[in-house]
Amino acid sequence: MTVLILVAAVLALLLGGAGAASAHAGLSGSDPADGSVLKTGPQHVTLTFTESVSFSDDSLRVLSPENERVNPRPAQHVDGKENTARVALSGTLPQGTYTVAWRVVSADGHPISGAFVFSIGQPSETAAVVATDSPDETPVGRLYGVLRHVAYSGLALLVGAAAFVLLCWPAAGAARPVRRLLTVGWSALTASTVALVLLRGPYETAGSVTSAFDLAQLGRTVTGRSGGALVARLALLVVAAVWLRRSARRLDRAEHGSPPPEFGSRVRPAAALLAVALAVTWAFAEHAAAGIQVALAMPAAVLHLLAMGVWLGGLITLLLLLRSRGPAGQDLPASAIARFSGLAFKAVAVLVGTGVYQSWRQVGSWEALYTTSYGKTLVVKVAVVVLVVWVASFSRRWTARLVHEAARARMPVRVAASERARVAQTVGAPATPAEQDPDPASDAPAGDGPSDQPPPPAAQADTYRRGLRRVVTVEAVLGVVVLVITTLLTGTQPSRAAGERAAAVAAAADPGVKVITVPFDMGTAHHQGTVQITLAPGQVGENTVEAVVFSADGGLASVPELRLTLTQEELGIGPLDARLKNQKGYWAAYDLRLPMPGEWTLNITVRTTEIDQVTVRETVRVTPVPR
Question: How crowded is residue 579: how many other Cβ atoms within 10 Å of its Cβ?
Answer without folding.
Answer: 13
